[in-house]
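Sample pair:
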Amino acid sequence: MLLYEINARLNGQRFDEISARQLSDYAELGFDTIWFMGVWALSPEGTRMSKTYAPDFQGSPYAIPDYIFNPDLGDEAAFRSLRKRAEAQGLRLILDFIPNHLARDTPLIDRHPEFFINSNHAMREEFDLDYYEHPSGRRLAHGKDPFFAGWNDTVQLDYTVKGLRDFMKAALVRLAGMCDGVRCDMAMLVLRDQIRRQWYPRVRREAFDLAMPDEFWDDAITAAKRVNPDFQFIAEAYWDTEPKLIGLGFDFTYHKRLLDAFHKVNSPNLVVEHLRHTSEHFLKQSVNFIENHDEDRAAARLPGTANRRAAALVCLLPGMTLIHQGQMEGMTEKIPVQRIKPLEPFEPDESLREYYRELLAFARHPMFRKGDYVFAESNLPNAVSFWRRIGDSAELVTIPIGEAPLHVPEYPLFSIPQGWGIVTDSGRIAGYGGDRIASDPDELALKLEHADVIKSFGPLEIMRVRFDVTGE
């Protein structure tokens, strides 16, 4: 999947102002899914609090009282109409689901105070900054992850309460009838083990298991997909919880470790090493990206050449590719979700935009969206090589990482997946015999001509060599 993230408020358009022509332009670029980030109505208290940080802040779309559309964007009928226009262009629309918390002034507190984490020193160690006094007189916890102070415009939901789990499941089921999928904010925070560690560490395991016997996601995803079998679940997830969430029914999880590898010292070697040990199965269920609304802009963190190479890699790996609004134009300002207008003037980078246009033109090919993937060992330094295959056609792809010029050895070597027969220009089948490559005894070596490798990189600096292939 090719996913385009649009900041709905920053975009400056109401749902009924987004035309079929605009949607068609997204589809023509190669996108099949649009994520409208930040569509839910804000809470008055959250908006007020945000302005204490900056006068132009307009509240966080992740501190919401309920799943009601922001009237500045339109109502449910307007969104459903937008969805029909998108569907006509072959586009799916996904929205945010925020499982961990609601706005600190949500009316739900008055109706169901038991749905929230109330102060209780017998259950946990508590820090004053992580709690607030609600007008009802209750002392309630802010939503938080365990490594940072609480988000002070939110209130923490309590998933040990069955009524709360049913309420949130019902919200998901409703969304399954309204859109095509959800990006679930900080999805790992509502895993059973995480809830017990963070909110109920002083409670006996038997008592906790009785209150929350099963994982919320397992039950809720099943219920939503019963309404809409094609409904997509995307997890923002960290801390190596990705396999757990996939096992509970998520279709995709964030691939944050790849993003981090792009920004570390010795990045090329780290990226290669990371992908060497990352399975095709994991990649096919990953969201690969070099920026999103939570991360610094790629154009600000990566020099021009490194930025383009990183973009090429995330677009051509298996799984879902996420492109953030402004990324293709080289925007460098990271805009907080509370702000609905950029602070800095911006002139689009037309050469980068054209690069993305060409990149997406072949990234949407079925070989890259649906084909098989095998990591390839090679003797090209600071470069990732891999095979993509669909049917009896395969491509050997090499993408340099970082900003250093590519160095091609005199005798370029690439591993062939075990069991594959690669038909060369001479008609010879390579792969069923020959010298084994030392770094992986299960794969065989393919030697290409130096000049052919240099020539194959082309203007996008991506080597793509096509072969017919036989065997497994």
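Residues 162-176 form the longest helix (15 residues).
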